[in-house]
Amino acid sequence: MTGTNDGKPRSEAWKTAATMLQDVRPPHIPEGASGMTLLVEWPPGDPGSPAHRHSGPAFGYVIEGAVRFELEGEPERVVRAGETFWEPGGDVIHYQDGNALSDAPTRFVVTMLCAPGEPMLTFVDEEELARRAHLRAPRPVS
Fold first, then answer.
1. What's the pTM value of the predicted model, to 2 decimals?
2. I need a labelling partner for 37 at 20 to 30 A (CA). Which of 61, 116, 136, 142 fits?
């Protein structure tokens, strides 16, 4: 241990306390963006938000449970507790963020960078979903 300005010993734990969970280079951060961090809690089996997009990138960490996660152009996947996800924001549609578990709740934290004057998320209507259907990855066979 080393000393501090107040004379009390300082722990060396800071040297090993942090673990890198995610390191990404988002393609676009809107100028003047504001940051927002949310805790999202879905009950068992909840499908989550309807299809939407964000004005800037979003970075998430699953605390408990499992998130069914799907972005336009990428296959659906399940992100489990202790794992991370991110999305670029902008024009990309976020199809799914619901609870992948039918018997347990799911909780995740997400930090979003939002363009000034724009909402945190914008829902995508059925007409646009139909127009962009060719951009969605093939659906899993049930």
1. 0.83
2. 136
Which helix (H) or strand (E) segment holds residue 94: the answer is strand 94-99
Task: Return the SS3 of 126.
Answer: helix
- Class of the 46-117 domain? mainly beta
How far, in Å, CA of 45 to CA of 98, rounded? 8
pLDDT tens sequence across 109-119 = 999 999 888 88
User: In whole angstroms, what is the distance from residue 93 CA to residue 111 CA?
Assistant: 17
CA distance 49 to 98: 7
Per residue in 26-78, pLDDT tens?
Answer: 777 878 889 999 999 999 999 999 999 999 999 999 999 999 999 999 999 99
Tell me how crowded residue 95 is: count the other CB atoms within 10 A of its CB: 23
Q: Nearest to residue 41, comparing CAs of 71, 62, 69, 56?
A: 62
